[in-house]
């Protein structure tokens, strides 16, 4: 049985079992490398890791292997990160921009930097620029108190401030 199957069979045991801990970079890289192309064969930067895909017949968040969207349960540092993700294809707002999106939640607190960085590298390439937004207060939407989001517009380069504004690079 793999870790995901173990969790589905007994989620409480998963929380207690520290040995399930965190996935090594080599394990993640190997999983993602096999999923670098869409069903149409195009090379993609956004990856939906089948290994952690939530599958339950008839459930609204169920998706199929190879889909670039879905719900995922990702083990990390002894906890399970609940993720909903999409490559944004065909979903736009008034501005007609498609957005790749990863929503991350925990049951008792917001995800931390280490968890968000891990998921960023799991769903995108390490050199991809992905952002978290702090929108105007009048545009806040809060469906869950312990959820954070990662975003990237499709086909649009996001500007970065000069590195020196952040600090001296060693």
Account of the 3D structure:
The chain has helices at 3-9, 11-16, 25-33, 113-123, and strands at residues 69-76, 79-86, 99-105, 147-153. The chain has one domain. The protein is globular. A hairpin with a 2-residue loop joins strand 1 (69-76) and strand 2. Strands 1-2-3-4 form a four-stranded antiparallel sheet, with helices on one face. The chain is 19% helix and 18% strand.
Précis, in short:
This protein has 170 residues and is α+β, with helices and mostly antiparallel strands. The protein has helices at residues 3-9, 11-16, 25-33, 113-123, and strands at 69-76, 79-86, 99-105, 147-153.
Q: Which structural class do the helices and strands define?
A: alpha+beta
- Radius of gyration over C-alpha positions, nearest whole angstrom: 17 Å
Per DSSP E runs of 2 or more residues, the count of β-strands stands at 4
Helix content: 10-25%
Low-confidence stretches: 1-43
Cα distance spanning the termini = 44 Å
């Amino acid at each position: 049985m793999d870790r995901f199957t173990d969790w589905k069979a007994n989620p409480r045991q998963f929380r207690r079992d520290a040995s399930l801990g965190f996935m090594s970079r080599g394990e993640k890289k190997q999983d993602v490398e096999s999923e670098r192309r869409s069903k149409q064969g195009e090379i993609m930067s956004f990856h939906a890791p089948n290994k952690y895909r939530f599958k339950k017949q008839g459930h609204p968040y169920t998706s199929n292997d190879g889909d670039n969207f879905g719900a995922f349960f990702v083990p990390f540092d002894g906890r399970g990160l609940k993720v909903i993700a999409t490559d944004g294809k065909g979903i736009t707002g008034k501005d007609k921009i498609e957005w790749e999106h990863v929503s991350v939640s925990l049951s008792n607190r917001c995800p931390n930097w280490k968890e968000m960085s891990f998921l960023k590298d799991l769903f995108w390439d390490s050199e991809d620029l992905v952002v978290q937004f702090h929108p105007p207060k009048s545009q806040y939407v809060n469906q869950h108190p312990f959820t954070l989001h990662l975003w990237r517009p499709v086909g649009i380069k996001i500007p970065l401030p000069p590195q020196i504004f952040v600090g001296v690079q060693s």
